[in-house]
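Researcher: Good morning. I'm working through a list of sequences from a screen, and I'd like to move beyond sequence-only analysis. For each chain I'm collecting a predicted structure so we can compare shapes side by side. This is the next one on the list. No need for commentary yet; just the structure.
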Amino acid sequence: MMSAKLHLFGQFSWELSSGQSVPKLRDKTAALIAYIALSGKGIIRRQVAADLLWANGKDPFASVRQAVREIKDMEHSFGSDLFQADAQYLSLNLKKLWVDARIATQCSNEFNAPIAEQLLSCELGPLLHDNIVDAEVFCDWLTFEGFKRNEDLENSLVQLLDQLSAGDSKISEIQRVSQAILKFDSTNERAYRAQMSAFLKEGDRASALRQFDICKEILRRELDVEPSESTLTLAEQIKENSHKSLTASFQPAASFQIIGDSIVKPTIYVENFNTKSDDPVIDFVAQTFRSDICEQLACNDRFSVRSGDVELVSDLADGGGGKLLNSEATYKIRGNIMSVEDHTTVLVQMFDGSSGDILWMKRVKPEMKELLAGNDEQAILAAIEMYRKIELAETDKSHRLEDGLLNARQCVLRAISIMFRFSEDAVREAKRYLQRALTQAPGYSEAMAWLAFLYSIELGQGFTSDPQATREKVGLLIRQAIELSPSSDIGLAIAGHLEAFVYHDFETALEYFDRSLAANPNCSYAHGFSAITHCYIGKPDEALLLLGRCRQIMPFDAHPYYFDTARCIASMLSGRYEDAVRIGRQVLRNNPHFHANYRPLLSSLGHLGRIEEAEPVHQEFKKFQPEFSVDWHLKNYPPLEEDITETYVNGLRLAGVLEK
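Model: Good morning. Structure tokens for this chain:
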């Protein structure tokens, strides 16, 4: 018969020799058992127990008797006899009881790989991490004992990790040990280096560098220090290899004309607003409203924003010495403030800088309270509408130009508009334009970020024959993009999505979204991609709110299928099956090539019992992905919380999707 086991690392649990787990005990009772188990021979005096946990109580010995009775009643109900109590002593039979913390100390003093493996199979964490006891003497004991036992556990697993790393162990084995170490010591650099080296050994440089990024971020956040010299040296070796690989990947295609200074941002010139009044209040409204517009436009680093009250200097390839006249701006924004009695109205217009055509205009009535607070939502929304209109206009220009005349920025715009068709031909064509952008401007971070996203489409659509190599490209490109432009709102938003979708690291994904929105609070892609991640982590209602904000920011989306599919998924996960079906069918009508939309649509139809409607959808999907099954979904879809996964796959089963 197997021995009983007492787990003190992480969550307290007591497993009897029968294999049954003891029901949850009161915290002080569990604390008493832990103290006895870690005492020299597993025996203590009743007086020690009273002083340890109930010194400040009305009747400490009565409290001890109550705890003893709780343990004895539990053992009696399970037929166990490990705990003994008499008039003076309390004890545990350590010959029949395996205690993880004692085993960790034994293994640390005299390393034994099989024993370390036993520890590894447990749910690990700091000693008695979930035990909440406010007794001062016990807290002092736990602080000292925890430091010693946690160190022994870590040392045992580090020795096991060193042994695995020195041999021909698989990356999965090294990851298993490393992650166990990091679970209770997230700052352990040896664990990070072991994973970096293992990934490098297998040729997966992208994953190796991701481990370095995580290590660097954790050390800064938890200890406010930089990685050690050993970690930095290893990272530099990986980077050097990665840079060579990236350079080799983007050699210019012979059919493309290489243009010199090719990232030319459109220039937006915001003129001084016209007030036609000497009223200082009206002048304040004009300046504040215009400043809010300038501030919001400047958050978007794909534009060059100039204000009417500063000297304008050209940033084109003339050395920066020439004045940029008002007439040379790509787009011009004008405002007129009109006031009649107590009503103030702002008329904002945006013109094409070349033709003078009015491209956009809006009449708004600003709220004085919001203006005084410096955050007028109407000014922000006006700026959002303007830069979305500019993006659409710039994309239209890129499509009207001859192919050989495109600069790097225009290549990226073409690629974005093409890739969201999601067909294999569209993905291939978009890749050509992004790679062309990188031959013209090798340090173009936005092109790198979108190329990484494009490779994730290949993964999701099943267009790649080597998923691991594709994941490597994703990690390599997005890391380079963030290094080159660490405050790029779109780059950070894409990085967040890739962390969630490709690597299933949702915590890091959410951090990237926070950084993206800090750079630009109204980045539509940050809201949209974050919504998808919120679906993965089981928060579909929050996802729907984020998608609502995304649509508000980007009402005229030239490629709506992607975020409409996210809306379909979020509606399905939140139980809004009718909404999910309506949205899913709309996406299919407009773009039947996007595979991700079929799955939530099928699940929703299954939950609604509309099997006859689900059958043709299922048959159509099988043309694109004949191997699709419940098992495929569970293996390939980013992991959801257990109850949400069950809801999802139950709907698929009801819709007629086979298990395998």
